[in-house]
User: Fold these one by one.
Assistant:
Number 1:
Amino acid sequence: MSAISQRRMRPRFDVNGWLFVGPALALIATFMVFPILHSLWMSFQTGLGVRLSFGGMKNIYRLFNDPLFFTALTNTFIFFLVQVPIMLTLALITASLLNNPDIKFRGLLRTAIFLPCVTSLVAYSVLFKSMFVANGLVNTILINLGIVDVGIPWMTDPFWCRTMIIIAITWRWTGYNMIFYLAAMQNIDRSVYEAARIDGVPTWARFLHLTVPMLKPVILFTTVTSTIGTLQLFDEVATITGGGSAGGAAGPGNSALTLSLYIYNLTFKFAPNYGYAATVSYVIVFLVAVLSFLQFFAARERKA
Amino acid sequence: MTSYGLKQRFSTVVVYVFLGVMAFLSIFPFLWMVIGATNTTSDIIKGKMSFGASLLVNVNTFLTQVDAPLVFWNSAKITIIATVLTLLISSLAGYGFEIFASRFREKLYTLMLLTLMIPFAALMIPLFMLMKQFGLINTHIAVVLPTVASAFIIFYFRQSTKAFPHELRDAARVDGLKEWQIFFLIYMPVMRSTYAAAFIIVFMTVWNSYLWPLIVLQSNDTKTITLVISSLGSAYYPDYGAVMIGTVLATIPTLFVFFAMQRQFVEGMLGSVK
Amino acid sequence: MNRKTVALAFAGASLFAITAAQAAEITVWCWDPNFNVAIMKEAGEIYAKSHPDFKLNVVDFAKADLEQKLQTGLASGVADGMPDIVLIEDYGAQKYLQSFPDSFAPMSDKVDYSGFAPYKVALATLDDKVYSMPFDSGVTGFYYRKDLLSQAGFQPADLQDLTWDKYIEIAKVVEEKTGKKMLAYDPNDAGLTRIIMQSAGGWYFDKDGNLSIEGNTALKAALEVIQKIQTAKIFRPAAGWADWVGAFTGGEVASVTTGVWITGTVKSQPEQSGNWGIAPIPKLEIEGATHYSNLGGSSWYVLSGSAAKDEAIDFLNEIYAKDIDFYQKILVERGAVGSLLAAREGEAYKSTDPFFGGEPIWQTFSDWLSKVPSVNYGTFTNEVDSVVAAHQPELANGASVDDVIKAIDEQAQTLVQ
């Protein structure tokens, strides 16, 4: 609506618009779009290393007959469906609590909760491995609190291994998403809250009916980027479950093998098959595109 | 009345307990890292949770194995240049996409977002070949350029611009300000909290970036701190004490940036808009 | 005035030195600052004594990082920015040689390979040409805590000629008498499986490099041992490298069976000096079974695109194929067991080690080294290994070895192409 009226009023905006978006588009075209097209071309090649030849649909055919691909696909979806909602809800609740000016030590609490995502990956992996080993800190605490009788087999049972990965990702990225919510909350007019509070609207209702709708663009942003992040999940699974001498499995029974880790293995750990790796990565592109479309669609729907 | 007061007090306690637990869980691993920096490797592996006496030994090992001033300088140079450029170019584009109308706008924007979706592992080899053609292998420019082309930050700026009050822009136009003046003199100050968040995020991402710098940087004198820590941590028998020193040192700049920037969240738009 | 002239002359000399050095600078990529990086620097210093122009630039990366850089560079066909010499883990040798033909320089017409352990030469041979300078060996040993085993009633002499069944029986007694597990084991890593398999001359591939899973007696016997170890619960579960290392350095387990490169790590606990002993690894009870095997190990390769290719080969040949004293030095200082068999005639190899109760462990290891069965690591070891590792936990739950082998075979078939 407003876009149409603007265009009718000021057609010369287009020139200005191009100047604003031009530099970014030029960079993205050179350093993103061009390599992406190159890799699309590669996805039709078969063979190892530099001994490539045109294979047509061979990689697609291989994809549908590859049990490891389906393992990776399933794992990726498990991580995505369970982890993203938990993390974003947690981040949103934390941000709105920290946005309350009556809370003491806000600065310290904010910094503490943001801290995990700046920790270097090396320390992060050493740490999580040592905390979750059979007789590590986490099991010791759980046993002492009487929550479990014997230690949880974090590293040897597929279910618990996935749980551990989900804990690790949530730990690392909740504070990160909180930053976006906190920044966006600054744009909400405080007086609306005050009015609602005086009218006796309970906290949870204010959160649900005032905060969430006003943050919708940023919630959409974090949902889409977290979807992308989780579907491309690599760092956590590679560093926490990796480290074997030659091949090694990605967690018990490959329970932590994600699509991105599989692509990485096909490119660097295994005999390099760039064509097939490119094909698998276009599966991610396809999935993210569909999911993002659904998320945009859902956001639009509620608006109307 | 009393019951209301009790309820109120109860919910305050719940809020503090929740935030306290969150903060503790978040800070605990960092604390462990700091403690680790004072312990020997075998104590670190055992998961010792108290301060040890090996801090100086670890610092010494770290400094003899790593040319600390050089790698920190490399990291700082890359990060600052990349962050400033990314913020400028991405916010221009984010603002441009939201404010200006064009028939191609949404199509281009969608196309741009698609670039976010392809895993970086698939792009590394084509990108490396491209850098080779530009003659940029083993230069810091090669690290900066793909970072600056960030659809992610453009996306963020566009989503945040949706909250930018249109009245402000219309008023400025009436006052006869040019489009670029509106952007630099009005949009930028108003969107301070968005810039602050983006600054933290980009700074952190570039400072910790690993895979791409690893591929394009070839010689010891161009390496960044993240690359150096990674190679320290991968020996047959890594010296985790030195690794912990490295990670603690490498975390400090990001924490400093966060401290400096987070004031913007508190002030936000309160100052300039009203 | 004088000082100025001197300074100028000095500047001129150093300028000259830089140009001269650049003409002959050799760049090496390798991955362990305390091991192969330090050793390569040492080699460079020795060679520079007889070749004053020679300058070596050793760049260290994490091993996975190095492989990423190497593969990206080779795939892009970009010669500049690549090293002259690179260290490659032996399991990956054929993968590189076959995926990137003509990227590595053959050395067989310059190097005399008859002096090296045969299995090290075989793994870097393609079409009758040898492409590597063999470096460290991963010859395996059974490292055990003498104190704990004698507490359980076993003397060193009882441990020299074990079978895996006997090993498991001993493990049960050790736990009963000392309360300690026999070994630390990571079910997600197939290292032990590979050790056992190679000790009987088997691998995931046959001699021609074809996938060999079903009907592979060595693999089957190895997985049976793995199953017994898991169901007998004689191991302390380990999660990843650091945890595994921590288990035996921290005194939680009574033994460790792995490659000789672990010696330095075992010795990192001075208070355990005198309490450790070594024995040959236990043996399978099938045809071709031996007490000798290998885990890991690596070799040097020269890139054929290197401008200083000939000099790089000459450097490797002079030091790694001929210099017996060099091997003594890296053994004493870094615990590196090279694969040049003549090196064991040197002084250091004959020395005894009080940490291991005064046994001549290096002499022992180099005897074992010459007996390691040669196998074909093929192009796809990492692929198949990841599948095998993923199926190991099923064995603990009582799945039949034949079923597991069948499942491994099925998954491996799609990966091996």
Number 2:
Amino acid sequence: MTFFKFSAPFFLILNFLIVCAFSPAQSCKFSVQFAGQPYSMNTLIYTPTDTAIVMQLKCYVRYLHPKKQMWEHQLLDFYLAEKPIELKLPRGADSIQLFFGVDSALQEKGVGTGDLDPKNNMYWGWFPGYIGVKVEGISELFGGFEYHLGGFRRYNANQSFLWVKPGGNYSIDVGEFISKIPKEKEGKIMSPGPEIPRFAQYFVESIHERK
Amino acid sequence: MSGSKVFWGLMIFFFVSGISSEKLFFTPDGWPVPVYDFQQNPPTQAKFELGRRLFYDPILSADSSTSCSSCHSNYNAFTHTDHALSHGIHDRVGKRNSMALFNLAWKDAFFWDGAAHQLDVQALAPLTDSNELGSKVNEVLQRLKTTAPYPALFKRAFGREEINTQNFLKALAIFELSLISNQSKYDSVKRNEAQFTAQEKNGYTLFLQYCQRCHEEPLFRKSGFEKNGLLMNQKLKDTGRFNLTKQHEDSLKFTIPSLRNLSYSYPYFHDGRANRLMDVLQHYNTTPSIIPFPLSKNELIDLQSFLLTLDDVNFVFNKKFGYPLHTTSRK
């Protein structure tokens, strides 16, 4: 009995280490497309109905780590990405609910480090908090566009999510996203507001799993 | 080491550290609990010195011409009286009147529309605005990393030479939090160390009747946003709080500024349209959309004389808050 009492914590730790050692690292990948076609940032793309260039595509993604019970944030910045961006996922999970934007409670505290460092140019100055999604470019069909989506108090734009699977490949379709934004916005969204959560949902709906 | 040496060493340490912390930040008697979370950023002398240096250093601007103090001069209660709107790099002009900086630990929203919800992050807006300091955060950090004595000052303040955004903002915040103004004649009267004149006393009575609703003692401001009855500046098209909330009831609502140090912090209002304090009082006296304010000319003068008792000459001319090279602490 005494042996069991003192050895139980040891076996628990050993079990944890074994699980960690044999659970392979997991990830999924994100790339960019435009109107259904694969796209390389900062290059002209010709579709049957449009000619366009995407100059900026950045977004924050986050998931609640099942063991740590903390939000894990990562900035997906496609500006210089020559290949799909890898997003590390927790070991052992079959699927993960991936949210877009920065956790609201964290934004109440101020600024973060690493990917959440304001030097990544994803922190608003004259508006509170982080920009969750930044999409900029020029389209012959839709004109110039600068869409900065964020907001975390009255207009929480950080609720949209996508279920992702380890090993999955996902494409963000910028052409589809900009086609969903109403023309009245004249290609500019630069502040929080009541419509922004809906536009953030459009962004997530423009992400597709590639088979 | 003998016991007595250890004892006296500890006494000196506690005495010095006690003085330092008292000077850095304190809550005056009768004041509310600060809003700022000091547990996340405990004040230290090293952070204060670093923050003060950063505040006065034009290295923060894109062309090294403009510092925080360019619009927030200590002699003007940390605002600027020379122009209505803030000025920035390349002679650019901003969109709003720079705000006076003091008693910031008691504020829960910053800027005229409350766009910044926390003191640490507010510096990012003027730092990166192309009409103000026009910098990029990573470029500022890079300049600081390669400019002596910043690596050493950051190490002293945060224990590491690494210069990152968080520490940069925290140091600036500690300097700004130390700007406490509580040495006015009004404060002396409240401490029973002085007395109002008859005119000031009458003005105080009028203040309590007409102004206290928005400008609560002892900070002479309160949280939230109000319409001040001003028509929209057609050039600036500034809708105030509406800009953030997109709620019609917030249109033309602005933060309620403190009435302390008014002699040093003109021009007034968000767009700096009033140069004289009496112009502000006349505005409230003649604008029907604001609460009734039917004061005679003599009463307005009495009210103004009370408001001038909120001037804090000790704060405004305190060299501790001045340009670092002009203070003895650099020796």
